[in-house]
Amino acid sequence: MRKLLFLVSLLAIALYVHLPSLSGKDIKKILLEEVLSIGSLEDDALFQWVGVISDSDSYIYVTDNMDYSLKKFDDQGNLIKKTGQKGKGPGEFLAPRYLGISNEFLYVTDQFKS
Fold first, then answer.
1. Domain that holds residue 84
2. Which label site among 9, 12, 20, 28 has the fewest CB atoms less than 10 Å from its CB?
3. Which among 5, 1, 110, 112 has a CA at the least distance from the CA of 50?
């Protein structure tokens, strides 16, 4: 806790010291445009996503840590398939994390499973 408090204090001091050097400089605005939305507050498509990757067919794969699953979405953000549940067996996850694709295989890391 002390270490965290020290780091936050150090960051605050560093920002305070550099603020005067930013005055008078042009601040550039970046406009963002939403191109895809996956899930919403009204549905349960995503709870706490961790890993995201897309394949050559434009499908989007997401690991969802809160419901221990891997979810597949189409290029419009519609849920196509959900697999996995909490557990230590085949097809089960304890903490699904990062994703990788190689040679048409999808790899999912599970933080607490060996």
1. 49-110
2. 28
3. 110
Tokens 């204090």: give the residue. Answer: 9
- By three-state DSSP, how is residue 22 classified? helix
With respect to residue 103, please indicate whether it lies within any of the assigned structural domains.
yes
pLDDT of res. 17: 64
The answer to whether the predicted template modeling score (pTM) of the entire model surpasses 0.85 is: no
pLDDT at 1 over 60: no
pLDDT at 93: 92
How many Å apart are CA 87 and CA 43, to the nearest integer? 24
User: Does 36 map to a domain?
Assistant: no
Instruction: Indicate the residue type of 32.
Output: L
Domain count for the chain: 1
| Burial zone of 20 (CB within 10 Å; 0-12 exposed, 13-18 middle, 19+ buried) | exposed
Output Rg (C-alpha) for the chain, integer angstroms. Answer: 20
- Do 101 and 109 touch, CB atoms closer than 8 A? no
pLDDT at 81 over 70: yes
